[in-house]
Amino acid sequence: MTVLNAxxxxxxxxxxxxxxxxxxGHLSILNNLFKMTTTEDGHLFFDVLLHLGTLxxxxxxxxxxxxxxxxxxxxxxxxxPLGGERRQRYPAARLxxxxxxxxxxxxxxxxxNDMLEGLYYKSIFIGVMLVLTGCILYIADxxxxxxxxxxxxxxxxxxxxxxxQAVATIPGxxxxxxxxxxxxxxxxxxxxxxxFSFLLSLPAVLGANILAFAKAIRSGVDWSCLPAYLxxxxxxxxxxxxxISLLKRIADKGKFGGFAYYCWVVGVLSIILxxxx
Length: 277
Fold this sequence. Notes:
- By secondary structure, this protein is mainly α.
- Helix content is 72%, strand content 0%.
- The protein is built from 12 helices and no strands.
């Protein structure tokens, strides 16, 4: 693992994790077609660091929301500074509940997780999923503006979005694109659909990385590559923050069509290159 490879992989992770173009799909293409891997040859630990880096990006951008959820949950159970008369209105605590509910469908994936991971190495399948991601984004671009936020979204909305997040564990499907589209379909306001999608990723990414960390340690860590790993992780954090900010601005205008065309092009090219080579 060279520093240049680590920078490229960090850049791809930071951009593709949050822009709705599938980080797993792009990392798979780099791995399968260009032999730039994070999951083989002792580099699984780097893959964990990259995902932790993008998790940190979400925490930086949505730090105020995370702090608000923490304090309002404490207030709701009347042991924190927001107890007493302010127990009647807890929008951030409601948001926390919706995130918990939306995370639960991921447990349905655990029995087939190994099978899904095997699809990561099938480039034609990845290409098809990227094309499907483009179709999902094209549909999202045509949806009308909803009105729901954390104050009035329902448990069923959270379950539907959570089920779509579980489906998006399939390599090549964009998690953010799928969950944002699901949010729009349930009537969420565009800016809130983006925020809910990214906050919903926190427990998902953290849980997945706890499992992956144990696997990475068992498979062995190439500590000589640690400087390259750290450089790549910093790149993932910085590009992740920039990508979230960009997508928030794009969502305000409701323009996902460009991402749809991009996914179609990359997906078709992936299929063609796999067949040729």
